[in-house]
Amino acid sequence: MNGKEYLIELTNAQFPVIPTIETLDSLDKLPNVETYIVKPKDGADSIGLEFVTKDELIDKFDPESKNTLVQPFINFEYEVSFYFIDKEFQYALYAPDKEQRWELKEYSPTEEELTFANKFIEWNNLDWGIQRVDACRNEQGELLLVELEDLNPYLSLLELSDETLKNFVEAMKKSLLKTLQLKFEFFL
Description:
By secondary structure, the chain is α+β, with helices and mostly antiparallel strands. About 30% of the residues lie in helices and about 25% in strands.
């Protein structure tokens, strides 16, 4: 992924994603909430992220900028991440306490939750490598995409059980060997 332009595309395609816009002309696509999040389209790690009211949003938003995203503030129950290698689900982790979002625990997703995550893996159309689908469960119980990460995703491997870690490493080895074999065949 290069930037977060895909969040706008997914919003427009009505995927289950935190609604995202890039111009105030599209403000009607967002729910009417007290607080909005304004962030750089090419940002990472919450750098440049601001929480603003609707009035502040109108004052702060630069209509000339093509590098700003606006989302409603979602008061979520928890965050959950689904990890895939070569489009195959490997494991899930979640932060049961949203105030301590880096204290992760292994999570056993339901079939419905895996179907949710797979929608984004299929949409991304990347046949190989590691992908992470980050989602939040809102107060209404819905899962919404927060981010789809396929470039340097943090894997939280130290949070995994020994068996899950072993399975992940084996899947990663198979993926690398498959990729090397394809590269080798290409040059023959």
